[in-house]
Amino acid sequence: MCSYSIAQPAIKVALSDDPSPLEVYQLFTTDELINSWEIETNRYARAIINSKDQQLLSNRSRFKLWKPVILREMWNFIAICIHMGLDKKTTLHDYWTRHPVLYSSFAPKVMVRERFLPIFNISAHQRQVLEVYIDEAMIPFKGRSRFKVYMKDKTTKWRFKLYELCESSSGYIWSVEMYCADKRMSNKLVDITMRLLQSLLDQCYRL
C-alpha cells in the first residue's frame, strides 16, 4: 500500500481571511520599494532641472512646474498605470477627457492630469534605452555540412551564414542564428528579427 503526504507550501505569507487585491499586490510591491522609487524620481528630476537653462524655460514648462513626489502619490501613480493596462485608450489625455464616449472616472478621481503627466515623463526619462542591431556574418568553410551556403563572388565559395544580434556601442554579440535553409523555419527578415529579439522584448531595447 502506498502512503501519501500533503505537500507544504514553500512560501508562507500572512494574509487576512479575505485579502483584497491591494493586500496581495503589496506582498510584491512594498512601501520600501515605492519609497526607493520616490527618492530616485525626485533625485532624477532635480538633476534634469539643474541641467536646464532656467531662463529658456517657459512658465508652463513641466520642469518649472515640478514638485517633489511623496509616497502616497507614487501609489496613486501606480494605480493609474495598472488601470491603463486594463482600460486601453489611444492617448494619455483620453483618461482625463470628459468626452461621453471615452470618459472614465477612475484616473481623475485618483490624480489630476497635470500632476500625473510630469511624474510619468520623469519616470519615462529614467528608463535607459539601449540600442541593438542585427548584422550578417560569414564564416568560410571547406568541409562537408548541409548548413553551408554557396557564394560565387567570394574567394572561398562555401561559407556559413550567420545572423547576429549585437549591442550597438560595444559590438557585443547577444545572440546568433545560423542560416540553414530549413523549410520548417521562416527565413523572412521580420521572422529572423523576432526570433533574435525574443529575450529582449519589452526591456527598453531599440533596434
Automatic annotation (TrEMBL):
It comes from the Eukaryota. InterPro entries: PGBD. Residues 20-121, 132-204 form the PiggyBac transposable element-derived protein domain. Pfam families: DDE_Tnp_1_7. This is PiggyBac transposable element-derived protein 4. It comes from Plakobranchus ocellatus.
